[in-house]
């Protein structure tokens, strides 16, 4: 059954992949670029709760990327960091394992954040478990409390010392705080400015930055208050070395009905800062999700739509000298989704965005990705 499906799939996609490849490399064969100015990466997010899934993911990051992302969006060890005490053994074991599986030749991006996973307050606590409730007195603190600044700065320094990253991101999708809890924005910016200033003083050669959700910066793409988003962007631009963009175009008014082909041109026009795609993805299969008020929304997609998006993304990265591009999910996590309850909620939103499908088969988008990866890296001209 799998073999039959793959044969049929490749017959359907061969022509479109050829056309996409021509578009990616400039429209004619002799215009193919000789180098690329960006790194290509994934996170080691596994497709199932198993050692086999972990091994598959790390092994293919070694083969299909030259950048690995250690993404920590699961709480901060506030208590231990403030006290300068050792972190819980579970956290230390996680760090140890990640570092041991990091390919020696890859660039390393480490991402942390003081903002909660739901982007509506201070990040939860991490110790023996991830995302535990904040303990007293942190459960009463705002972003601008001195203890928050001290603890988060120590955490940043500890994780930098441990992983020795090539890039360090100290805030994930920070503009969503302006969307979901705008009254907290000013206190967050107090912390943001402090962390950036201190990190740059200590590590002048390390790119230090935050990410924002790119789709919320473009008027009409989502339902956010555009003026507030422009204010948030203006606030952070002097305190970030790179503008990191988290981009999921199917989570916009376009859904999967059409591809917003001007999206990257519009995003680049917002800043003179270097741009990096800190996470992205596009579904290669149809899925349904409950979007609130018990409304079930179906997004129709397939592998060809995903390939078109990856082609658009890589062409923009080439044209605009992006620093790096990260497709967050390496392989579809249908198995993990089943293991955690198979709900049509937020957990399904990225399930089908892997460049490998749920059975480990290569998708057409991965062929485009590999074509870009095969080009020698060159540092962009300043």
Distance between the termini: 52 Å
- Average pLDDT score: 93
Tally of individual helices: 12
Query: What amount of the residues lies in strands?
Result: 5-15%
Structural class: alpha/beta
Tally of domains: 1
SSE order = HEHEHHEHEHHEHEHEEEHEHH
CATH uppermost class: Alpha Beta
What's the β-strand tally? Answer: 10
Strand order of the largest sheet: 1-2-3-4-5-6-7-10
Radius of gyration: 20 Å
CATH homologous superfamily title: Glycosidases
Low-confidence stretches: 1-19, 25-30
The gross shape turns out to be globular
CATH architectural type: Alpha-Beta Barrel
The description of the largest β-sheet is: 8 strands, parallel, barrel
Percent of residues in helices = 25-40%
CATH topology: TIM Barrel
């Amino acid at each position: 059954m799998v073999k039959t499906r793959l044969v049929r799939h490749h017959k359907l996609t061969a022509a479109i992949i050829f056309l996409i490849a021509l578009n990616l490399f400039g429209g004619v064969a002799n215009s193919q670029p000789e180098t690329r100015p960006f790194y290509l990466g994934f996170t080691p997010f596994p497709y199932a709760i198993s050692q086999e899934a972990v091994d598959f993911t790390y092994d293919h990051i070694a083969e299909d990327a030259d950048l690995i992302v250690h993404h920590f969006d699961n709480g901060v060890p506030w208590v231990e960091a403030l006290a300068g005490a050792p972190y819980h053994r579970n956290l230390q074991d996680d760090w140890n394992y990640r570092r041991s599986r990091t390919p020696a030749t890859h660039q390393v991006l480490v991402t942390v954040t003081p903002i909660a996973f739901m982007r509506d307050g201070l990040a939860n606590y991490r110790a023996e478990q991830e995302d535990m409730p904040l303990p007293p007195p942190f459960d009463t603190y705002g972003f601008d409390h001195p203890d928050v600044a001290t603890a988060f700065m120590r955490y940043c320094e500890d994780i930098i010392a441990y992983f020795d990253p090539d890039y360090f991101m100290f805030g994930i999708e920070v503009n969503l705080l302006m969307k979901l809890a705008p009254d907290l924005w000013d206190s967050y910016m107090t912390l943001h400015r402090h962390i950036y200033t201190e990190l740059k003083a200590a590590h002048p050669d390390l790119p230090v930055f935050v990410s924002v959700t790119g789709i919320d910066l473009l008027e009409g793409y989502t339902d956010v208050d555009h003026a507030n988003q422009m204010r948030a962007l203006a606030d952070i631009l002097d305190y970030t070395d790179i503008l990191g963009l988290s981009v999921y175009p199917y989570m916009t008014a376009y859904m999967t009905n059409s591809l917003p082909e001007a999206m990257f041109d519009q995003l680049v026009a917002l800043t003179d800062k270097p741009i990096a795609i800190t996470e992205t993805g596009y579904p290669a299969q149809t899925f349904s999700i409950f979007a609130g008020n018990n409304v079930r929304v179906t997004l129709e997609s397939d592998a060809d739509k995903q390939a078109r998006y990856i082609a658009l993304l890589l062409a923009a990265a080439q044209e605009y000298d992006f620093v790096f591009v990260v497709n967050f999910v390496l392989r579809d996590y249908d198995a993990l989704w089943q293991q955690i309850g198979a709900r049509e909620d937020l957990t399904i939103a990225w399930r089908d965005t892997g460049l490998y499908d749920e059975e480990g088969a290569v998708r057409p988008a991965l062929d485009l990705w590999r074509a870009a990866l095969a080009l020698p890296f060159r540092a962009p001209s300043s």
